[in-house]
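Dear colleagues,

As part of the handover before I leave the project, I'm documenting each prediction I ran so the next person doesn't have to rerun anything. This entry is a single chain, and its sequence is reproduced below.
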Amino acid sequence: HLLSRRQRQMCIRDSIYTISVNLAGLPGMTVPCGTDKNGLPIGLQLIADCFNEKKMIQTAYTYEQAKEAE
């Protein structure tokens, strides 16, 4: 499926927050953390030092567990 023009523009706009991390070779991930007042998803971006994916994944897991406990 092809993306609509609006979807492509959103992808380009949103990638400004991740390009520098990708170019630096750092591991990064986004964890869902809720929705805004319009019901759109909000994500928490986690970035780790090189070769420290394990700590980043553990942090994401801990956050998700705490979020479920609310």
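The first strand starts at residue 28 and ends at 35. The beta strands are 28-35, 41-47.

All the best with the project,
I.
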